[in-house]
Amino acid sequence: MRANTVIMIVLASVFGVLAVVLANLWLANQRSAMARTEDGVQRDTVVVAAVPLKFGDTLSADKLREVAWPSGAVPAGAFKTTKDLLAGEGAKQALQAIGTNEPVLATKITGPGQRATLSAVLAEGMKAVSIRVNDVLGVAGFVFPGDRVDVLLTRTVRSDEGPDKSFVDVLLQSVKVLAVDQVADESKESPTVVKAVTVEVSTKDAQKLTLAAGAGQLSLALRQAAANKGETTERVTLSDLTGDTPDDVAKRQADLDRQKAADAAAAEERKRANDKIDGIAQAVERVDSRIDELSKVKPAPAVTAASQQVVKEVVKYVQPEPPAQATIGVFRGVKLETYEVPRQR
Questions:
Q1: What is d(CA 262, CA 162) in angstroms, rounded to the nearest whole number?
Q2: Distance from the Cα of residue 229 to its chain's centroid
Q3: Residue 330: which residues within 8 A CB-CB, separation 6 or more?
Q4: What secondary structure does DSSP assign to 126-176, as a single string?
Q5: Tens digits of residue pLDDT in 93-141
Q6: Rounded to whole angstroms, how far apart are CA atoms 86 and 83?
Q7: 187 membership: H or E segment, kind and range
Q8: pLDDT tops 60 at residue 270
Q9: Distances in Å between the alpha carbon of 216 and those of 155, 167, 168, 197?
Q10: What are the tens digits of pLDDT across the range 226-242?
Q11: What's the average model confidence in pLDDT over 43-63?
Q12: Which residues contact 210 (CB under 8 A, 6 or more apart)?
C-alpha cells in the first residue's frame, strides 16, 4: 500500500471522530437550553378525559384525570381539578363526544343535575326544528349530528297563463344538525336511513322552515365540514334543465294546444259526416219498404154489367217489375254525389 493512501485513511478517520464529538457537544447544549426554557415556564393543571366519552355519559372521577398544562395556554372553560369539575349537587353528563386526553370544557358538559338533552346543546337564542325526510331527501342517511347542511325547497306553482312552473330555492345555508331521528350523539359513524332531522336555527329561520314544510318539499344538501360560509345562490327552474327560455316553453305549449284543437275539430267533422250517411241509409230503407208494400197490392176486379152475359172488354193488370237498383244521393260538403246500390228484396 502506498504512503499517500495510508495518510488519506488516517485523516478521514480523524475528521470523522472530530465530527461525531462536535455533534454530541451541540446536541448536549441544545438539550440544556431546552431544559432551562421549560424550567422557566409556569405550569398549571387541566382536567382531561381519561377514557373516551360520548353524548350522555355521566362524568365520574374514574373517567377524568389532571394533567400539567402551560399556564398561558389553558383553554377557556377548562377545569383545574376534578373536584371543581364534579362540584355541585347532581351528576354531570357529556353533551358531545370527548376524546382521551382532551380537555373537558364547560361547554361540553351539562350543569349539575342537568340531563343531556337538545335544550342543553342549543346555543344562546337558537331553536331546534325537526324536518321530515326520507332515504333520498336525508342524503341517504349520511347526515350525522354536528354536520352542516343546506335546506332546499322545491315548489310547483299553478299559472293561469300557461303550464305549471316548478323551481328549487336554497332556503337556508350552513345549518347545524343537532340530531337524526332521536339520536344526538356526534360520535355516531354508521349511516342510517332516518325519518326526521333536527337542526339548529334562529327564530326567524324556524318560522321559514315551518311554513316551507307545507308549501313544498324540503330536502338536505350536505356541506363540507369546513365550509360554513354562505354562498350566492339563484333559483333553478325547468328551463335551466333543458336550456329553454320561458318563451320557448310557452310557444311549445301553444303549438300543442293548437294541434289538440285541430284534432278535435276534425273528429267532430267526421262525426257529422257519419251522421249524414246514416240518415241517408235510413231514408233508403224506408223507400225500399214502401216499394215492397205497393208491390203486394192486388189489382181491382173488372166490372161487368149484370144484365149482359158477354164480356165486351177484359182489363188485365200486369204487375210492374220492381227496379233492380236504387239511386242514392250523398252531399260531400256542397257537392252532391249519386250512387247506384242494389235494392233490397
A1: 19
A2: 23
A3: 276, 277, 280, 336, 337, 338, 339
A4: -EEEEEE--TTTTGGGT--TT-EEEEEEEEEE--SSSS-EEEEEEEEEEEE
A5: 887 788 888 898 888 888 776 666 667 677 778 888 888 877 666 666 6
A6: 5
A7: none
A8: yes
A9: 5, 10, 10, 17
A10: 666 777 777 787 777 76
A11: 86
A12: 129
Kind and range of the H or E run holding 65: strand 64-70
User: What's the confidence (pLDDT) of residue 13?
Assistant: 86
| Among 86-100, 194-208, 301-315, the least confident range | 301-315
**Confidence grade of residue 309 (pLDDT, cut at 50, 70, 90):** low
* Amino acid 207: pLDDT: 92
What does the block give as the cell for 250? 310557452
Q: Which amino acid is at 199?
A: V
Q: Per residue in 4-33, pLDDT tens? A: 787 888 888 888 888 888 888 888 887 776
- Residue type for position 151: V
| DSSP H stretches of helix in the chain | 3-40, 82-85, 118-121, 203-215, 238-242, 246-295
User: Grid cell 322552515 — which residue?
Assistant: 209
Look at residue 197 and give its three-state secondary structure: strand
Letter for the amino acid at 343?
R
What one-character DSSP code corresponds to residue 58? B
CB-based contact 167:152 (threshold 8 Å): no
Which amino acid would we find at residue 268? E
CB 76 within 8 A of CB 103: no
The answer to whether the beta carbons of residues 46 and 73 sit under 8 Å apart is: no
Is residue 320 exposed (0-12), middle (13-18) or buried (19+ Cβ within 10 Å)?
exposed
- The C-alpha cell of 329 is what? 244521393
